[in-house]
Write a structure and sequence with these properties.
By secondary structure, the chain is α+β, with helices and mostly antiparallel strands. The chain has 3 helices and 9 strands; from the N terminus they run H-H-E-E-E-E-H-E-E-E-E-E.
């Protein structure tokens, strides 16, 4: 009986230890390079549409020491007729600014508090010790510089979902009520 209690106590300790390490799990899982697969937006009426054209391009890079860079480009944008970036037309400059979203800085990841009750009917870990369920939480971007100057030296919190090699997040609503959605796949 004493051995069974000891084994049970050790089992509870391992489960508690696993739950205590969940926040580090998702940050380490974000580390690496990610290719943009979608840059959409949810309109105030709930309709989801492309935000950066039909085939946007971009990358997100998260380092193990907490740095990041994100670049999103619209698939089509105007070329400067002059061939000189210092001699664009007002329309060319406007298009250049609105066809890109880039920023870099540092980041932290927080997951919502998870209880054993949340997983009472689930298998928690695979054979190699990885959590099987998707990770959800928030990424806090401490933006140093951005293509949109109002984001320079700001802190923005964004909800994310990590499911296998698919990373997606919804940014806070823009002033017009539109909610940007970015979807990335891990670059092998």
């Amino acid at each position: 009986m004493k051995k069974q209690f000891s084994a049970l106590k050790n089992g509870f300790f391992l489960v508690a230890l696993a739950f205590a390490t969940l926040p580090a799990f998702s940050q380490s899982k974000l580390v690496g390079s990610w290719r943009l697969t979608a840059a959409d937006k949810i309109l105030p009426d709930g309709k989801e549409v492309a935000d950066y054209g039909a085939d946007p391009r971009g990358i997100a890079i998260f380092t193990a020491d907490g740095h990041y860079v994100i670049e999103i480009f619209r698939s089509e944008h105007l070329k400067f007729a002059s061939g000189d970036r210092t001699k664009g037309t007002p329309e060319e400059y406007k298009d250049a600014l609105l066809s890109v979203s880039c920023h870099f800085g540092t980041y932290t990841v927080d997951e919502p508090k998870v209880t054993q009750e949340d997983y009472k009917d689930a298998i928690l870990f695979s054979a190699d010790g990885c959590i099987i369920d998707e990770a959800k939480g928030t990424i806090t971007f401490h933006t140093e510089r951005a293509s949109y100057p109002n984001w320079d030296e700001t802190i923005r919190v964004t909800n994310f979902t990590l499911e296998g090699d698919k990373l997606s997040w919804q940014s806070p609503p823009r002033p017009d009520g539109v909610i940007p959605i970015s979807v990335f796949s891990r670059i092998p």
